[in-house]
Amino acid sequence: MDILTLFLVVPILTILTLFFTKNLQQARTVSVIGMTIQFLMSLHLVYAYIQERKINAEIMLFGKDIVWFEQFNIHYAIGVDSISVAMIVLTSIVVLAGVFISWKTEELPKEFFISLIVLATGVFGFFISIDLFTMFVFYEIAVIPMFLLIGIWGSGPREYSAMKLTIMLMGASALLLVGILGIYFNSSADGNLTFNILEIAQVDIPIAAQKLFFPLTFIGFAVLGAMFPFHTWSPDGHASAPTAVSMLHAGVLMKLGGYGIFRVAMYLLPEGTMMWSNFFIVLAVIGVFYGALAAIKQTDLKYINAYSSVSHLGMVLFALLMINKTAWNGAILQSLSHGFMTAMFFALIGMIYGRTHTRDVTKMGGLLKVLPFISMMYVIAGLASLGLPGFSGFMAEMQIFVGAFQHPDLFHRIATIVTISAIVVTAVYILRVVGMMLMGPVRHEEYNTLESATWYEKTGILLLLIPIVFMGVFPLLTSEFIRESLSPFIDRLL
């Protein structure tokens, strides 16, 4: 069996095994074993990719192509480049950390872990697919479990949040499907239509079709990436979702939006990209600044992190639309950094809420004295979020801004300055939360008896902390690994 298909087989086998578990202990043991294997496979994939790339110059490596529906030329076509590999590693780490953070899930534990791993299976399938139809199927597999995970295991207005999320993402899926079909019906060079991304890239799609279907495809993916003004489903979804679901939601699922825009909309529709880029740059810049300002006004920890995600992912879209290698490299690094960082934030928020029974920062204080490990990890995540050197966010944001400033025209310069200014706002809300929640005297007497972080909580946090520090201390390793896969995109758009 090929190395990529195993990323679907292992979670499916884990899900099948979970059906036979009888209690929480068995369910979490099976989940940990399955997702640990998946994590080790992702590390092996990095090594195998580096070795294969030395002797193989193809755009996508480890390719496999099996006909599914011959009449419509739909294939199970898979392959990866360094960007796909990086996203697979991100997914495997966040999913495994989410399993550890969900160690005490007592309500329908078997069903919870099954839903969580189904979501992860869809994400893995999305990242390895190079057939548009197959990619869309995995996209839906990844999105649909969110309704159940929030609606059943969530808190607060969970039914409202789950329904709002589902309606908005299904609406985006409808636009995306129209865009994909538009690409498909204009993909013929020799009389044969195709869904294969690499084959479509060899076809000159009519400019009129590109201008029509690019915004549909872009918006279809961008809604999942919380692009302004289609972001409102995300904060509500985060606020009601259980901790591990928020981790996967922000850390992994929302990355499908930026990845799909880059891999499909921009790569296959270059003329449409050039025509619409300025319009979407405006929306991205608004999203970056609006998300940061909205985070300042929040007092609920989950809403603060949710609006922070809107800001950070807006920066990813902004970087992609800069259309140069430096900014694109920064966009991928920002996606990875945000994935690890925001998953860590949500894990820590869940740990704090589980002990204090509140997410309102105005009702907390002095937690650094009683929860030193959790508090210090929150500070580190915050420093990474505001782009402090030595952590993953610094190199990502630096490349985004350097790439953006390569455009000499006034429009791009103003957009870049506004986007950079959002970093100042980010520092304000991060330091504000740290000051109110962690510093000062212990506000409530019962906080003195709060339980310290457990071994499984520390394991989940450390899984996320290590790549944040690694990317910050060794930025060139990650940057150079990603950069070699950007050339085909540069050739298409420039």
TrEMBL record:
Residues covered by the NADH:quinone oxidoreductase/Mrp antiporter transmembrane domain: 130-415
Top-level taxonomic group: Bacteria
InterPro entries registered for this protein in UniProt: NADH_Q_OxRdtase_chainM/4, NADH_UbQ_OxRdtase, ND/Mrp_TM
Keywords from the UniProt entry: Membrane, Transmembrane, Transmembrane helix
Sequence intervals crossing the membrane: 6-24, 31-50, 74-100, 112-130, 136-153, 165-185, 212-233, 245-269, 275-296, 303-323, 335-354, 366-390, 410-434, 455-477
A Pfam family per the record: Proton_antipo_M
Location in or out of the cell: Endomembrane system; Membrane
Keyword DNA-binding carried by entry: no
Keyword Hydrolase: no
Main location, first listed in the record: membrane
Protein's membrane topology: Multi-pass membrane protein
The family this protein is said to belong to: Belongs to the complex I subunit 4 family.
Protein name, as recorded: NuoM family protein
